[in-house]
Amino acid sequence: MAELWKGAPAAAALTEKLAAQAAGLREAGIVPTLAIVRVGERPEDLSYERGAMKRCEKVGIAVKQFILSEDAPEEELLDVVARVNRDPAIHGCLLFRPLPRHMDEAAVCAALDPAKDVDGITAGSLAAVFSGGRRGYPPCTAQACMELLDHYGCGLTGKRAVVVGRSLVIGRPVAMLLLQRNATVTLCHTRTADLAAECRRAEVLIAAAGRAGVIGADCLSPGQVVLDVGINVDEDGNLVGDVDREAAEHTVLALTPVPGGVGAVTTTVLARHVLEAAASAAGLPLSE
Q: Angle of helix 140-151 relative to helix 263-282, nearest 10 degrees?
């Protein structure tokens, strides 16, 4: 049976360290603060928002919420983003996406100050991920994958890694993060020819296609580490990932569950990015 790599232990270990860092900033007179900007009330946004607020409370990060109605004009949202940019007491911003169709999402993301982009949505942040630069913050879910691999002692140098999914939120950024750690990376998607064969060759397989069950038994091989980043709802209303969990549990070495895997670490990464942004704005180092 596969070992289940749960996110809670990794999140708890990181939260303890972050709480000490937040306390250090507060002693220096800095209250690390996250702005949450949400348009409408999508259930998945509300769920993540609750998790983010709980994590921030545990760490010692203040939260300011900016909630707009689903039919709010784009100008109102841009005004909120401008207020966040101008407020020196706000160090990071979490903007929920996708935005309603009547809004230009690219324009709104571009309006956010890159220094406060703690979830990797601006062009500057993504450029840093792809170039290997130190400025900017990678998308939190992509970074959460790396935190889980580190927590469970999965070395990456020379490993064959396959990422299934090419979004700018997870797939492409996590592929770049794996490359930076000296893995040999293949980036696939649902239209890849013989996807199953590509997946079977992986030593580390990250499933982020957003399609329930796309990674079936024919994609798996013994000894693999499989991170399931998919969040889907099945016909019975249950939360499931992209990986056929039953098949994986009987084949691979290690598997992240859904729920309770990568998602549990994502809000912790968000909190760390806020602390890093707060320290950077003050010109202070974060304690190790």
A: 110
